Amino acid sequence: MSLGLIGIESYEFIVENLARSRSFYVERMDFREVARSSRDLTQHTGEESVVFKAGKIQVQCTTPLNQRSRAAKYLAWHPDGIPVVSFRVKDLNATWKFLEGNHATFLSDPEEVKEGSGSYRHFSIATALGDVAFRFVERKDYVGYAPGFEDVKPADEGNQFSMMAVDHITVNLLSLEPWVSWCADVLGWEQFWEIEFHTEDVRKGSGGSGLKSRVMRDPHSNVKFAANEPQKPNFSASQIAKFVEDHRGPGIQHVAFITPEIIPAVGALKERGIQFLTTPASYYAMLSERFQKVNLSMSTIKEPMDQLQQLGIQVDGGNERYMLQIFMQEGGLLYGDPKAGPFFYEIIQRAGDPGFGYGNFRALFESIERDQVARARLNEGT
């Protein structure tokens, strides 16, 4: 038996400023607004929600309209963040039975809404990730986004950056093992990948910090969640610990979008005002030496290296397969507002390599730490 996952259905992003989110997704990311909460749902929940879509990616942005709402209670403690990830399943009854047998903590009973010949069924469970819940959805000939939402038909349903789907989701917490055990014991997921990294390993006496990361995967749908914890020494100085502090608890650090052509996507996104984490020139100077150790020749990389370096896109892989990735600046720095939070997006292009950038971890880690220094200055100014 298994969860019967088909894939990631959507995720909800609770935000303080819905107009700012609409501008980000529509004007900068070229997503389409495809649904919004109906008047009845808005009055009932005290929240306003808008759904943005690109490819198979669906982001539901929700903002509170009164202080009694669920969204207001979330924002009273956290900055902008993701409290719900929804998964599409084949058979909701089978998913419930599987989770019940694995002692999941249910937050709701199965609910069903019928429209015409279609039906929409769902329920939610608590997770080992603080305030984040997982929702399971079964659709049978149900064409809308969700009950209570009015669908919007955009004139153009494309996305100029060819954002296709969520590649993976990454979470940060102070203790990795409970999350990994929960994923295995309750969800039936398996470990796919792991790494440990500390700057002290390569620069003794630097006073640096590190992390431990594991990726858990649903073996049937290939849904993947990466998870990071801080490493000692200097546990509290790790950027993972800093995320948990700024987010006020464990949570989702970033979501990765997959695209078949990362160079034109990143170039155009930069023109639209999207800021990315920087990659030092020394990173590219060391690529050839690093690739020799993992059986990856420079000639295998089809994309021009000078363009990758100019845009700050990182390269990793092995056994003549590779991937390209880049990370956006976090919301707090993008908007100059700490309430926008430490969440960010990743863009990834895969050329056969299914991994998570083993050789890129140092560059990413240090880039995030540089941005966290900038955020600390921002927080001091508020």
Give a verbal description of the structure.
- By secondary structure, this protein is an alpha+beta fold.
- The chain folds into 2 domains: 5-151, 2,3-Dihydroxybiphenyl 1,2-Dioxygenase, domain 1 (Roll), CATH 3.10.180; 165-380, 2,3-Dihydroxybiphenyl 1,2-Dioxygenase, domain 1, CATH 3.10.180.
- Helix content is 28%, strand content 33%.
- The protein contains 12 helices and 17 strands.
- The protein has helices at 18-28, 39-45, 70-75, 92-101, 176-185, 239-247, 262-271, 281-285, 287-293, 305-311, 331-335, 361-380; strands at residues 5-14, 32-37, 47-54, 57-64, 81-89, 111-115, 118-126, 133-140, 149-151, 165-172, 190-198, 210-217, 224-231, 251-258, 314-318, 321-327, 344-351.
- Strands 6-7-8-5-1-4-3-2-9 form a 9-stranded mixed sheet.
- The longest helix is centred in the last third of the chain and has 20 residues, at 361-380.
- The radius of gyration is 21 Å and the shape is globular.
- The termini are far apart.
- The model has no long low-confidence stretch (mean pLDDT 92).
- How many runs of DSSP E, i.e. beta strands? 17
Which band does the percent of strand residues land in? 25-35%
How does the overall form come out from the CA principal axes?
globular
* Helix and strand pattern: EHEHEEHEHEEEEEHEEEHEHHHHEEHEH
The CATH fourth-level homologous superfamily of the largest domain: 2,3-Dihydroxybiphenyl 1,2-Dioxygenase, domain 1
| Structure annotation, total helices | 12
Low-confidence stretches: none
Whole-number radius of gyration? 21 Å
What structural class do the secondary elements suggest? alpha+beta
**End-to-end separation:** 52 Å
Biggest β-sheet strands, sense, barrel: 9 strands, mixed
CATH C-level label of the largest domain = Alpha Beta
Percent helix, as a range, is: 25-40%
Specify the CATH architecture of the largest domain. Roll
Task: Predict the CATH topology of the largest domain.
Answer: 2,3-Dihydroxybiphenyl 1,2-Dioxygenase, domain 1
